[in-house]
Backbone:
């Protein structure tokens, strides 16, 4: 009678041990489920680098100013209009580090840039999102290094572009 209980307990112990070993690795794998790759072009050169994240933002402030012009307290006396925000699209990204080729393009090219950000699902290798931008200018760059590290790397890089043209999955974004 003790033998079946012993076998059951042994099986449960082995199963629990295996799950405790593999369960953390499943959670870590899900953290890096998506691959985000930036391809940037300028001056006849193209470079690729991996990203941690990317975001798009824009403002339609003038639409709200026109709709609420009676409440606007700041008015240009020469035109009798409220000041307007630039109608640009902001594209920001961050990475653990960037490739040397991408760094060279960002550091040396002062004119318009173009590029693509492709998000791929690492599980089934399918493309999840495609962001294309053109007529963009580098508006900010930050390179941080720390003794603590970020995701196993000694630092992080963040940069942003002002874009005149941007499409997401084939849909043109118009601010």
Residues:
């Amino acid at each position: 009678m003790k033998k079946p209980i012993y076998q059951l307990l042994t099986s449960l112990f082995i199963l629990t041990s295996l799950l405790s070993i593999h369960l953390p690795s499943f959670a870590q794998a899900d953290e890096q489920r998506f691959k985000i790759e930036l391809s940037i072009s300028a001056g006849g050169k193209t470079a690729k680098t991996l990203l941690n994240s990317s975001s798009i933002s824009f403002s339609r402030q003038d639409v709200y100013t026109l709709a609420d012009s009676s409440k606007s307290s700041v008015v240009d006396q020469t035109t009798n209009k409220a000041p307007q925000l630039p109608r640009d699209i902001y594209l920001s990204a961050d990475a653990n580090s960037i490739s040397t080729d991408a760094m060279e393009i960002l550091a040396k090219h002062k004119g318009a840039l173009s590029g693509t950000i492709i998000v791929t699902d690492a599980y089934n290798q399918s493309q999840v999102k495609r962001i294309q931008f053109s007529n963009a200018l580098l508006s900010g760059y930050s390179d941080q290094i720390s003794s603590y590290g970020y995701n196993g790397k000694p630092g992080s890089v963040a940069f942003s572009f002002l874009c005149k043209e941007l499409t997401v999955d084939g849909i043109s974004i118009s601010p």
In short: The chain has two domains: 1-31, 32-173. The longest strand covers residues 127-150. The chain has a mean pLDDT of 79.
